[in-house]
Every structure is written in C-alpha cells, then in structure tokens.
Amino acid sequence: MELFSNLGIGLASALQVTNLLYCFIGVTLGTVIGVLPGIGPLATIAMLLPITYGLPPTTALIVLAGIYYGSQYGGSTTAILLNLPGESASAVTTIDGYQMAKKGRAGPALAAAGLSSFFAGSVSTLLIAIVALPLTAIAMQFGSPEYFSLLVVGLISSITLASGSVLKALAMIVLGLIVSMAGADIYTGMPRFTFGMPQMLDGLDFVAVAVGLFGVGEILRNLESNVSGRAVTLFEVGKLMPSKDDLKRIIMPSIRGTMVGSFLGILPGGGAILSSFVAYNLEKQVSRNSSEFGQGAIEGVAAPEAANNAGAQTSFIPMLSLGIPSNVIMAMMMGAMIMQGISPGPNVVTEYPDLFWGLIVSMWIGNAMLIVLNLPLIGIWTSLLRIPYGVLFPAIVCFCCIGVFSVNNSTFGLFIVIIFGLIGYFLVKLQCELAPFVLGFVLGPMLEEHLRRALLLSEGDYSVFVMQPISAALLVVAAILLIVVSLPAITRKRQEVFVDED
Amino acid sequence: MFLSMNRRELTAGLFFLGAGIGYALWSYFTLPFGVTENMGPGYFPIVLSSILACLGVAIVFSARQTNSDTGVGHVSVRAILVIPASIGAFALLLDQMGMFATVFIAALIACFARREAKIVNALITSVGVAVFCTLVFSYGIKLPVSVLPVWIR
C-alpha cells in the first residue's frame, strides 16, 4: 500500500542523525518553555525562526514542530503540580490535575497526562499520514479562484480563534492584510508603503512582526502587575506509577480526547486550546465518574491532555496539504517554509516528499522522546520554575533582539519589533485579538496574488468566483461560518471557552 | 453621546477608522489604481482600507450598545518606555560594541522595566545573560558579530 512506502520515505528522512538530534532539541526546548510561564511556543518559534534558516528545510520544520507539541507536554507538568498552566492549552488540566496533586496523587496524574498524550500523538500521526494525500489530490485541481475562496475561508475561520467581538476580529484581519501589502508589488515592482527605504522593499519581515507582537507584547503584559514572585508550594511527586484501576480509567477518555482533538485540530481555527476545553466538557458529560470531576478525577486529566496533543498535531494537516494555516503557529511554520524557498501548498507532497513524510514520522519519534523525557526528569523541569521572572525577561528580550538581527544580519528589523510590539500591546489592551491579524498578514500576499490572477484571466469578470463550483462552495462555507460565529449563542460559548485563558 | 460610550470600543473603532482612512489616502496618492481586469498596485489596498474604515465606523456604533465603561486594566508605563529603549539600544550598539557589551547593556536597561529592580541583581543578571548569549550565539551558532567592541582591536 502506498501509505507504507510513504512512511518508509519518512522514516529514512526522520532517522537521519541530524534530524534525530534536532527533534530531540526541539522537544526538549518545547518542554522547557511549556514549563516556564511567561513564554510560550508562539514567542519561541518566532525567536527561533531565523536560526532555522541555516538548517535544511526538513530539519527546520522538525525542530519547530517539536517545540509546539513538546510545549503541550511541558505545560501539563506545571498545570498539575502548581495549578499554573505553562501553556493556555493546559489550563483545563489544572482543574482536576491540581486536585489530584493536593491529594498526593501527583504521580499518577503526571503519568496519565503523559500516557494519554503519547497515545494521542501516535494516533494523530497516523491520521495525518492517511488523510493528507487525498486532501492534496483534491487541492491539485484548484485554480486561482478556488485558492482565493479557500483563503477567505481560512481567514474567516480565524475569527473562531478570537474570543472578542466579530467586528473587531474582522477589522484585525483586514488590518493584517493591508499591512502585509508593504513592499514591492509583485506584478509591477512598484514600491508600496515603503517610506522610500530600500530595506522595506522585501516587505515587512515576518519574524520581526511576530517577535514584536508576541514576544515584546507578552513581556509588556507580564510586567503590568508588579508580581515579584509567586508563592510556590511544590508538591511531592511521589510514586509515578498509576494503579491498574487508574490505567483502566484513562483508556476511554484518552480515546475520546484523541478523537475530539484530531477533529478540532484540522478545522481552521482549531488546535490545541479549543480541543482541550471541548474534550474536558465532553468527558464530564459522558464519564461514569462525572461527579468526581473538579475534585481530582483522573479522566479529567487524561481527556484534555490527549485532545491538546492530537489537536496540536492534526493542525498540521491543512497547512501541509493545502497551504492553509489553521492557527497562528501553523502560520509560523509556513513562514519558515517560505523562508526556505518552499511555497506551501498541495505541491509540497509531490515536490518535497522527504520533507512531508519526514516531518510526519518525526512527530511520532518526538512523542516517544517526550514520554521518556518527561516522566523520569520531572525534578529538573520543576526546578526550572524557581527562576524568577525578573531574571528571565531580560534574557528573553536579548534572545528576541539577536533572533531578529540574525534574519538579515541587520538591525533594521529591531525597529519593526519595537513598532509592532507597541501597536500589538495597544491593540490587545483594546481587546483586539492578534491571531486574526497574523493570519491576515501571512495570507495577504497570496490572497492578493490569486485575486489579481483570477481577474486577469477572466478579464475582469467577478462572476468567476461563483461560477466555478468549488470556489462557490468555499465562499458559501465562509459566509455560513461568518453567520454562525456571529450568532449570540455561539458568542457566549466562545467567551466561556476562552474565559480561563487569562 | 460620546460620554456614554464604551471607551475601549470607541478607541478601537476610531483606530481602525483612522488606519483605514490613512492607508486609503496613502495608496490613492502614491499608487496607480488600474482597472478590474488589470488591477494596479493600489487597487487592493484601497479596497481593503475602505473596508477597514467601514468596520471602524461599525465598531464605533457598537460602542454605544456595549454596556458600561470597561477599563483597559493596569498598564505599566515604565515597561512601555524601558523595553523599547532596551531594544533600541541593542540595535544602535551592536555594530560598534560587539555582542558581549551590547547584550550586557540591553539586558541591564531591560531589568529596570520592573519597579522593584535592584542594581546589584540587575548587574548580575545582565552579566549572566551576556555570557550565555555570547557562548550560544557567537561561539555556538557563529553569528557574524564581533564579540568584543570594535574599537578595542
């Protein structure tokens, strides 16, 4: 079967020593930042993007992916031990995980989180391998009108990532689109919005914008309240091995969580965070032990952990097979691919099979590494938490500076970082979400290119977007999404889901 | 009318309105518009900025319906001034001062973004960060930046 030969290509690629090494570095780094509050996978990936430039494309993606799903593992450690989610996706794990720690059952909680995450990671890796190819085949038939409509769907669905008002999210998308227009126009070469500066001709550097919005913005937010140190009572981890009863109880939640996460991860706008919340709520409704939820039910740890890992990995599917990032982190991955000279889209599978399959297989390898890393080395991770934020954030600032500098070996990008750091902070204070902006920024050039090309080929006829069936269907989906997301009932649900994030 | 509006929403709406108008004018005066079947570089930006301006107006109107006057939460003016200063210092100094000194100074400035920063702790932290960055980025990754200030050689 084709699947096995493709997995074979993947294994050959993923098992190369460099790729194994960088996979290890990625997942370890991911675990560390997952454990440390105040820095997340978004800022880290943004900072490391320029460094991956010197690596071969497959290796670069392996490292960045490792950081993403590694951070899901790390975040659950602090969620259970300290009631502090290192990652927003682990916020749900704090509910039952911390309760279990208080009862002296931190060990089984951690083990449940690790095991269910590994299960989810393995299953979703297989899913990606199975689903990606057929999807790509469909997308091969896409012309410019279809691409345009697909991008519109992607942009509209990013509103589901935002918890605030739909109007503001739309405005952020459009703002992102406009800002991305800076640089030389593709068709005519005329400079647009460049202030006459030659450094702006290539457009605003994505890394600088991302580091400014997420790195600097995050630091400014953390420095708002003068919290010098958290009173930390570290619970004894105790016996790691869960009892047989525990193991039996986590089987079904892991399976359900994996299914929820895999499905929600694929949807544009999905990913780890939404998956974990929905999985927890589902498990609470369905489980036999639902009365224990909130007081330390092990199912309440296993289900969201499985979901957030599955969601993190399946969110690669739309990006790898269609070239549509389903969340901001995928947009970063696309940025990395574009930096390497690879245009993300359906042709990636056929033109770069070792990249595609190598990445997929290395995700499974990364999961295996994580389960080995996390459980025995818990002590090291928790001792990292003793680093005070006052020491951490100057280091983060310097990493950001060095990272942005290294993209073009120029300090020009740093002024972009400052500007977007301030603008980003300003907008976040006004409760305008950044995710729609970033998606608009990444997809803007493609959106314009396909719009212009479609109209060029159809000689100015706008009806081409609705006459071609796939394009029309996609636009209808976008319209439905927009209506659904604006309905008051859904708005309330979205606010509910995101209320724990801060 | 303006006094009973939600200030946060109002500000957001005005920002988008202003940005939309600003970009529209900028595009109009600098870029050719073109026609639909041969869109010029100014076409898409003007369309988008018009949409943005409309959304801005819509948000201003929605500010009337949103209840009460929600604040923006605590803001640390100190951090807003100090962090950009730190990054700016890094940008200006790197060429001349080399990796170690630049990181030390940038980190030192950054430390003071917190009100309760103490000088001794800041100095120690900055040295630590400078050493770490020099080892990892100059010796490890071999970035093309001199470690020591240019004028020492």
Q: What is the element layout, followed by pairings?
A:
The complex is a heterodimer of chains A (about 500) and B (about 150).
Chain A: H1 2-14, H2 17-35, H3 41-52, H4 57-82, H5 91-102, H6 106-139, H7 144-157, H8 166-179, E1 183-184, E2 191-192, H9 206-222, H10 244-266, H11 272-286, H12 299-314, H13 316-322, H14 328-339, H15 347-351, H16 353-374, H17 378-384, H18 389-408, H19 412-429, H20 434-457, H21 464-467, H22 469-486, H23 488-498
Antiparallel strand pairs in A: 1-2
Chain B: H1 7-30, E1 34-35, E2 38-39, H2 43-65, H3 77-111, H4 119-140
Antiparallel strand pairs in B: 1-2
Helix pairs in contact in B: 1-2, 3-4
Q: What can you tell me about this protein's structure?
A:
The complex is a heterodimer of chains A (502) and B (153). Chain A has helices at 2-14, 17-35, 41-52, 57-82, 91-102, 106-139, 144-157, 166-179, 206-222, 244-266, 272-286, 299-314, 316-322, 328-339, 347-351, 353-374, 378-384, 389-408, 412-429, 434-457, 464-467, 469-486, 488-498, and strands at 183-184, 191-192. Chain A is mainly α. In chain A, helix 10 (244-266) crosses helix 11. Chain A is globular and about 70 Å long. Chain A starts with a helix and ends with a helix. The mean pLDDT of chain A is 80. With 153 residues, chain B is mostly helical. In chain B, strands 1-2 form a two-stranded antiparallel sheet. In chain B, helix 3 (77-111) crosses helix 4. The longest helix of chain B is centred in the middle third of the chain and has 35 residues, at 77-111. Chains A and B meet through helix 8, helix 9, helix 18, helix 19 and helix 20 of A and helix 1, strand 2, helix 2, helix 3 and helix 4 of B.
